[in-house]
Amino acid sequence: MRVILQILALVMLAPLVGSYLGRFHPLGDSLAVFRPAMALALLMLAFAFRRWWRAGLLAVALVTLVPILWMMRPAAAVDAVVTVYQKNLLFNRGDPTALIADFRASGADVILLEELSTANLPIAEAMRDSHPYQILCPAHSVGRVAILSAYPLSDEYCAEGAGFTAARVQHPAGAFTAVAIHLHWPYPFGQETQVNGAMGELAGMARPLILGGDFNMVPWAGAPGRIARATDTRIAGPIRPTLFVKGYPLPIDHVLAPNDAKVLLERRPRLGSDHYGVLARIGLVDR
């Protein structure tokens, strides 16, 4: 029995180690989605062993889980200068009345949208009284990505078919570049190719940047981190699941804010979508 348990532990360790290798192959990012589950399984399995095996497995599980739990830690309140609402609408959603009311109640300066399908276009139209400056970009097969802003936009950029759109928001507290992005699912789907294609454009955009979108990837994996490093931003927290697939929690909707800005992320209700929204309150620093 001891040998069987040891083999089982080693078999479970292999994909956990692989989940850190996304920089070498995109399969690593796909495995990273299940990193918390694998670490918890090792944590429970550790108690079937004694001494060194137990200590080793406990150490591996804790080293894996602590950074993820740190991303989920509560954050202090922020004196917000900019408020950004990120939302995957769901391309075939129903009545948007409650969602539109939540957009208005949030006080968002900028609303970043994905899956803005033909059926969802009335949502953008309904927001024109408060957010008249809009980019609706056909950047993704399941619907447009969009930026709705209460303030004028300049330097508008629509990467058709590439999954993102961007514009300079002329905010009273200082201009910033807003990016709405929708990534494909990870390996074996097209996320890596899409990210590689977008990196040059994103890295060259005027600072500071605020990005929001459905990244279809957990924040501790490679793709969101690569984009954050290229844009001088960090993934805002606290992290919470924004999509449940067969009950499995996935924090895949993110807002990325400037490295030196204080940010508080709040999860908003699903309101007819399969994704929760996220509202980022950002205290931009003087520049």
Automatic annotation (TrEMBL):
<keyword id="KW-0540">Nuclease</keyword>
<dbReference type="InterPro" id="IPR005135">
    <property type="entry name" value="Endo/exonuclease/phosphatase"/>
</dbReference>
<feature type="transmembrane region" description="Helical">
    <location>
        <begin position="29"/>
        <end position="48"/>
    </location>
</feature>
<keyword id="KW-0255">Endonuclease</keyword>
<keyword id="KW-0472">Membrane</keyword>
<keyword id="KW-1133">Transmembrane helix</keyword>
<feature type="domain" description="Endonuclease/exonuclease/phosphatase">
    <location>
        <begin position="88"/>
        <end position="275"/>
    </location>
</feature>
<protein>
    <submittedName>
        <fullName>Endonuclease</fullName>
    </submittedName>
</protein>
<dbReference type="GO" id="GO:0004519">
    <property type="term" value="F:endonuclease activity"/>
</dbReference>
<keyword id="KW-0378">Hydrolase</keyword>
<dbReference type="Pfam" id="PF03372">
    <property type="entry name" value="Exo_endo_phos"/>
</dbReference>
<keyword id="KW-0812">Transmembrane</keyword>
<dbReference type="InterPro" id="IPR036691">
    <property type="entry name" value="Endo/exonu/phosph_ase_sf"/>
</dbReference>
<feature type="transmembrane region" description="Helical">
    <location>
        <begin position="55"/>
        <end position="72"/>
    </location>
</feature>
